[in-house]
Design brief:
The protein is mainly α. The chain has helices at 2-18, 23-27, 34-43, 50-62, 76-111, 116-130, 133-145; strands at residues 68-69, 74-75. It has 7 helices and 2 strands, in the order ααααββααα. Strand 1 and strand 2 form a beta hairpin. Helix 1 (2-18) crosses helix 4. The radius of gyration is 24 Å and the shape is elongated. The N and C termini lie far apart (55 Å).
Length: 172
């Protein structure tokens, strides 16, 4: 059953990635010449029929060859592993901080059950748990780019939170 699910994922990834349009148009600059686009297609095997591309894709997956990252120009597996370790570190640090905060705030809220702090903590935690992850990510990225959040090793603030609510970009 798992093999069938894996096959569905492989087929979906291969064919859905082709629905985004011409990869040459996506990766090359707008002003790229037709010769550059044609060369890109030839180098990456995009001139072949889709079924031939799919067969090559599956054959490479069976050999655990995940190809080369077009943007990083190195093996895609290495790019994923590099990102994995940063992601794992971020997840572990976040889990530690959230656990410590939850234990502390939960203990304070339990100290006076039904009190003002308990109600504020309950409502805040429900809002936090209900907010979609992508929305929280967008808000955090926006706040970070506006200079509202501290940046690691920053020498000076990069902006003000007021730039979140104005139409002009933050000035450095």
């Amino acid at each position: 059953m798992r093999l069938i699910s894996l096959l569905h994922v492989v087929v979906a990834v291969c064919f859905l990635s082709r629905l985004t349009g011409d990869p040459a148009a996506l990766y090359l600059p707008v002003e790229a010449s037709d010769e550059m686009r044609q060369h890109f297609r030839e180098v990456h095997g995009l001139n072949d029929p889709v079924l031939v591309q799919f067969g090559r894709y599956v054959a490479d997956l069976v050999q655990l060859d995940f190809g080369e990252s077009i943007r990083k120009v190195r093996p895609a597996f290495d790019v994923v592993i590099e990102a994995f370790w940063w992601t794992l570190q971020l997840a572990l640090i976040t889990m530690g901080l959230v656990t410590a905060a939850a234990i502390g705030l939960g203990s304070l809220a339990a100290f006076r059950a039904g009190g003002l702090f308990d109600r504020i903590a309950t409502v805040t935690s429900l809002i936090g748990a209900s907010a979609p992850d992508f929305w929280v990510g967008i808000v955090v990225l926006s706040a970070g780019s506006a200079g509202c959040l501290p940046r690691a090793l920053a020498r000076r603030p990069t902006g003000s939170c007021r730039s979140l609510f104005s139409s002009s970009a933050p000035s450095d």
